[in-house]
Design a protein that fits this description.
The complex is a heterodimer of chains A (550) and B (332).
Chain A (H helix, E strand, L loop, with lengths): L11 H4 L29 H7 L20 H15 L1 H9 L11 H6 L6 H16 L1 H6 L10 H11 L7 H5 L6 H14 L5 H13 L7 H19 L14 E4 L3 H4 L3 H15 L3 E2 L16 H18 L3 E4 L4 H14 L25 E3 H10 L15 E4 L2 H5 L5 H10 L3 E2 L25 H7 L1 H14 L3 E4 L2 H14 L4 E3 L1 H8 L34
Parallel strand pairs in A: 1-2, 1-3, 3-4, 5-6, 5-7, 7-8
Chain B lengths: L1 H17 L6 H30 L30 H14 L7 E5 L5 E5 L2 H20 L9 H10 L11 H19 L1 H6 L2 H22 L5 H13 L5 H5 L3 H16 L7 H7 L27 H14 L8
Antiparallel strand pairs in B: 1-2
Helix pairs in contact in B: 1-8, 1-11, 2-11, 4-6, 6-8, 8-11
The chains are: A mainly alpha (550), B mainly alpha (332).
The structure holds iron/sulfur cluster (2 copies).
Chain lengths: 550, 332
């Protein structure tokens, strides 16, 4: 018998019996139901200790007593007051919602689950109701009638449940007439919970690992080198080329940083192999770093302070190694941090130079302050200047669609670069329906630290909108690959596709780039980077016409 | 429940307002309360604005809704993802004047077998536009009561608004649109189960207040007419701080005072209600900041140093392993 941690436990017909009608009872009187498969295990005491976080202890979500400090209420209310003084976003978002409901059916968790507290507006009300009670005159006077409620332990439990059922994807904020960003409110809610020592282990263990060893997985330097060596072996088998692995190399021109998810798990590793091949072919003077071996930043899912603590390594390492600028790999939340937070929390990076592609000479003016360029910007520029020798027909067996990862789409606007690259390395590229891509893209359902198996029910539910869109193009165009520029996607969408659109595999774009690239001195390419035979290329012949057929 | 309480509250307010028709009380309802309400309204708004202005914006967290500015040959969505101040102004203008974000609204439906359909849904946008714009027109039209001579623009707007030329005196289009839009917004809230679930007293109260104001205003003009010359004397007196004679006050009908009192209630309640979204829309950091994060550094005024794990600490712990693997180290 499968357990609630496994996909097979959930029958599609049952999951799809979604009742969008809210219950009779008002939401303030509806307690949370911690059913297995829909919540995440708490952070272990050891992890909190490594990070010096408050109230380390071992506990379980289903315990009656969460072992909160005696003055927990005061801690939370003071924490709220402090954040209302520090973040205009928080204060404005607390006051401005008109409950128009435009955001309600925009959240993948509501669409896939129907729980009214997963409507972004109600998720925010969970916190807003306490704000009204303790920080507004009217709430004090009117109480429940005014939408205000007392902060109790049950409220804390409810916050925990629903703030860890938000992937901070910001889709709701696109539709809100005031740009109210429920992700921001979730971040505040998680910070407040953190003050009481309430974290989930799926987030806080990677944070502790990253703090200590430089990456979420806790890979130590020699292990990292080994891992990359293994990939180099596979690369050699696929292409006949032996790539170098520059590690912690002082004086390199470029520091390359990518999410550590790409070091270990299939299909992320193929993207990582793609980077290595690409840099080798370009003769790029770059280096990996073992100390800054994580581009991702689970601090984003923890607190603003933790963002800064983890992110500090990147500039510190760039400085120590004396590089000129930084190149970043394919990742989603990583790019939200690099784009929207890094320069503010750890800049100015005045010891670096404005990034300039050594191959094309292009100066990346859009990164002139932060000095960090996205691999898709870098590659799109290479292709635009005709610097890559490409044979897209090698990818003809791939019928690909592109999933915009939430953060590059809604916290950056990196929409065209990946598409431009895809169109040049694949002949068969199909877009999903327009309400599910670009700024309206749907989350994988497992971002912001939710992508763990014990949360399987919510992942499958949250993955429904994306899964349905994938299945649509699968049925319509025979799509068999889903490309995503995000390491979390490459882990979570595998499950989403297996469940909602079986037969579609997940890939990074750089993997497809490397498969299409012709390398100097390569042997006959019979297998792709997955070491799977390339259909039609078993005996490589010159290709006949290769027009794009979108 | 919330519906009934708010409806009752507005009815009571209206009835209380009618008392203004009585001698002496007309001074309270016609002169003192309007000034008081206006003071609370203005004071409250200033307080709110200052309150927000005092809170810093530590991070630039723009929600981007289109292509970023990156390579010169890639076309940027200058309004949905602005990188310059002009782009931001354009984006904000679209938000404030056209409710751009509501224009994106879709309705999601779950179909057979887990298929999902997204249908463009513009009714909310339409109702919101209709309501806000008609209210603005009505407010401007009311300027004729506070000015002498009436500015040409106000007169012109009034003429345009009455172009239907139905009824005597003519029925203004804005009044109809206002009432219909409000009725729709109320029905939507009361009928849609999800909306009903999230709605608070505040939401219904404001709708009923506005409806009450609209209906009483409509009645004043078309059904139970009052001495409009006297009303103008009062309003002009209020606007110019010149006061008004008791005799004039006495000729104004109770209905007018009911109307006026509801307006006063709305004004006084404004700064404490969700109506502060009028300020919020200008101050929302996801909309009013340029997405130029990697070009121009954003400074956090309360930034503070944090505990980090330095490279030295890292190497001290792992030096032997690094050396064994041939990875360069700082200290041998
Ligand atoms: S769209 Fe914005 S204003 Fe409307 S209910 Fe949602 S958060 Fe509130
Ligand atoms: S940020 Fe995403 S997950 Fe969170 S409430 Fe909004 S739409 Fe839902």
């Amino acid at each position: 018998m499968p357990t609630p941690d496994e996909m097979a436990y959930y029958r599609q017909e049952e999951l799809l019996e979604i009742d969008y009608r809210p219950p009779e009872r008002g939401w303030m009187d509806t307690p949370v139901d911690f059913r297995r498969g829909s919540y995440i295990y708490p952070g272990k005491a050891k992890m909190l200790e490594i990070l010096g976080l408050p109230n380390p202890r071992d506990w379980a979500v289903t315990d009656e007593d969460w072992k909160l400090p005696d003055n927990w209420k005061q801690i939370v209310l003071e924490g709220m007051a402090e954040r209302l003084r520090k973040y205009r976003s928080f204060k404005v978002f607390m006051d401005s919602c008109v409950r128009c409901g435009a955001c309600a059916d925009k959240c993948h968790f509501f669409i896939g689950g129907g729980d009214p507290k997963n409507m972004p507006v109600l998720r925010s009300e969970l916190l807003r109701s306490v704000y009204r009670k303790d920080f507004t005159a009217l709430g004090k006077v009117l109480g429940k009638l005014g939408g205000a409620r007392e902060l109790t332990v049950d409220v804390i439990k409810e916050w925990f449940y629903y703030f860890y059922q938000c992937t901070e994807c910001r889709r709701c904020s696109v539709f809100c007439p005031f740009g109210i960003d429920t992700a921001e409110i979730t971040m505040m809610g998680r910070e407040l919970l953190g003050l009481l020592g309430i974290y989930v282990n799926w987030v806080i263990e990677p944070v502790a690992n990253c703090y200590r060893y430089g990456n979420h997985l806790g890979i130590q330097p020699h292990g990292l080198l080994d891992t990359l060596e293994f990939m180099a072996d596979d690369i050699e088998e696929a292409t006949g080329i032996r790539v170098d692995i520059p590690m912690n190399k002082k004086g390199a021109e470029i520091l390359f940083v990518t999410p550590s998810g790409d070091f270990v798990a299939d299909p992320g590793i193929f993207t990582c192999m793609g980077y290595m091949l690409l840099f080798h072919e370009l003769g790029l003077d770059y280096t990996w770093s073992s100390y800054a071996s994580e581009g991702g930043n689970f601090g984003l899912f923890t607190s603003h302070e933790m963002i800064k603590r983890l992110n500090a390594k990147i500039y510190a390492e760039a400085k120590r190694l004396g590089v000129k600028w930084i190149l970043g790999g394919e990742c989603g939340h990583m790019w939200r941090v690099l784009h929207q937070y890094m320069d503010t929390v750890n800049g100015p990076a005045d010891f670096l130079e404005v990034p300039r592609s050594p191959i094309t000479g292009t100066v990346f003016e859009n990164a002139r302050s932060t000095k960090m360029v996205h691999i898709m910007e870098f590659v799109a520029d290479l292709i635009h200047h005709g610097k890559l020798k490409l044979r897209p027909e090698r990818n003809d067996y791939v019928r690909v669609t592109f999933h915009d990862s939430c953060n590059p789409a809604r916290a950056m606007g990196l929409l065209e670069e990946p598409r431009y690259v895809l169109r040049h390395v694949c002949n068969h590229f199909y877009e999903m329906p327009e309400n599910t891509i670009r700024e309206q893209t749907f989350c994988c359902g497992g971002g912001a630290g939710l992508g763990t198996d014990e949360n399987m029910e919510m992942r499958l539910r949250g993955g429904l909108p994306r899964g349905a869109a994938v299945r649509y193009v699968q049925e319509k165009y025979g799509v068999n690959r889903l490309a995503a520029i995000c390491a979390i996607d490459r882990a979570t969408l595998v499950t989403v596709c297996d469940y909602w659109a079986p037969g579609v595999k997940v890939t990074g774009i750089t993997e497809l780039v490397a498969n299409a690239m012709v390398f100097e001195g390569e042997h006959e390419r019979k297998v792709d980077l997955r070491l799977e035979p390339i259909p039609g290329m078993e005996g490589e012949q010159e290709s006949e016409g290769s027009g794009s057929d979108e | 429940m919330n519906v009934l309480i708010s409806l009752a509250a507005v009815v009571v307010l209206f009835l209380v307002g009618l008392l203004g028709g009585l001698p002496v009380l007309d001074i309270v309802f016609g002169i003192l309360l309007p000034y008081a309400a206006l003071a609370v309204f203005l004071g409250g708004l200033v307080y709110r604005v200052l309150g927000y202005a005092r809170v810093p914006v530590p991070f630039r967290i723009t929600t981007t809704c289109g292509q970023e500015k990156s390579l010169p040959w890639i076309r940027q969505a200058k309004l949905d993802n602005p990188s310059s101040i002009w782009g931001v102004i354009g984006r904000m203008a679209l938000e404030v004047l056209c409710f751009r974000s509501l224009l994106r609204n879709t309705r999601t439906r779950l179909l057979e077998g887990g298929r999902l359909a997204y249908a463009t849904s513009l009714t909310l946008w339409l109702a919101a536009m209709a309501f806000h714009w008609s209210m603005l027109v009505i407010l401007i039209r009311h300027l004729r009561l506070f000015t002498q001579p009436v500015p040409g623009a106000v007169q012109w707007l009034q003429d345009v608004d009455g172009f239907l030329e139905v009824g005597v005196p003519v029925i203004y289009l804005s009044t109809l649109v206002f009432l219909v839009a409000l009725a729709y917004l109320f029905l939507r809230r009361a009928v849609n189960p999800q909306l009903r679930y999230i709605s608070l007293l505040d939401d219904y109260l404001l709708l009923f207040l506005l409806l009450g104001i609209g209906l009483s205003g409509f009645s004043l003009r078309h059904l139970i007419k009052t001495d409009i010359v006297a009303v103008k004397e009062l309003t002009l007196g209020l606007a110019t701080f010149r006061g008004v004679s008791l005799a004039t006050l006495g000729t104004i009908s109770p209905l007018f005072f009911g109307h006026l009192f509801l307006v006063c209630a709305l004004l006084a309640y404004f700064p404490f209600s969700k109506l502060v979204h009028m300020i919020g829309i200008f101050l929302s950091p996801t909309r009013n900041l340029a997405n130029n994060n990697r070009m121009v550094r954003h400074v956090n005024p309360w930034d503070y140093p944090v505990k980090v794990h330095t490279y030295e600490e890292y190497e001290d712990e792992l030096r032997e392993k690094m050396k064994a693997a041939g990875i360069p180290v700082e200290k041998e």
